[in-house]
Design brief:
Blueprint: H1 3-22, H2 30-42, H3 65-80, H4 88-100, H5 143-150, H6 156-172, H7 178-191
Helix pairs in contact: 1-3, 1-4, 2-3, 5-6
Length: 196
């Protein structure tokens, strides 16, 4: 596996680990201690005190465990992304994804991530909607409506940039009823962490 492929796998894996951690109750899980431990190891920080909860001393106080999980998995991704080869941390990330997803354990002769994710090796087909330079002939949703759904202006430029593509997707795949649009938006909101 080359470095670009490994980086792509790591990004997918740490995004998935974050999603799985955030779905857990607001009590520390074994995977939280794993993330904390590797952040400290890879950052050359002292070990966590045995009686301390995960993430204590890494980040300020007063945040929820989910907020710590979000920041910590992003930090772990930064720390491992440029490592040129598969390391012990990759195997453990893979193991925790399998465990938290209630999947069978990865066989020892299989590299981490390869049975969890598919890396695209080519660009997807472009959306073809006539000769019109506008992506969609119909506007199902506006950027302003998406911002209201998200409930924050922090991702305003991102939402404005992809709203035409969202409308083109609605048109192309016939996501054209309020119920279908609501389901689609709920799913992509969940998968993207509120378009983050």
């Amino acid at each position: 596996m080359d470095i670009k492929e490994l980086q792509a796998y790591r990004k997918l894996a740490l995004d998935r680990l974050e999603q799985l951690l955030i779905q857990l109750p607001e009590t520390p899980h074994e995977a939280d201690y794993f993330v904390d431990r590797y952040i400290r190891i890879l950052s050359n920080l002292p070990s966590r005190n045995d009686n301390s909860p995960p993430y204590e001393g890494l980040y300020g106080s007063g945040s929820s465990l989910d907020q710590y999980r979000d920041v910590a998995t992003d930090r772990l991704q930064e720390l491992v992304e440029n490592s040129p080869e598969i390391a012990k941390v990759d195997a453990e990330i893979d193991d925790y994804i399998h465990t938290l997803s209630e999947l069978p354990k990865r066989p020892n002769d299989v590299q981490p991530y390869v049975r969890l994710f598919v890396i695209r090796t080519s660009e997807p087909d472009p959306i073809e909607i006539g000769n019109n330079p506008i992506l969609s002939a119909q506007e199902f949703i506006t950027s302003q409506q998406l911002l209201q759904i998200v409930g924050t202006n922090q991702v305003k430029k991102r939402i404005e940039a992809f709203t035409p593509g969202v409308n083109a997707t609605f048109e192309k795949y016939k996501i054209n009823s309020p119920l279908r649009i609501a389901h689609f938006l709920a799913q992509i909101m969940h998968e993207s962490g509120g378009f983050k």
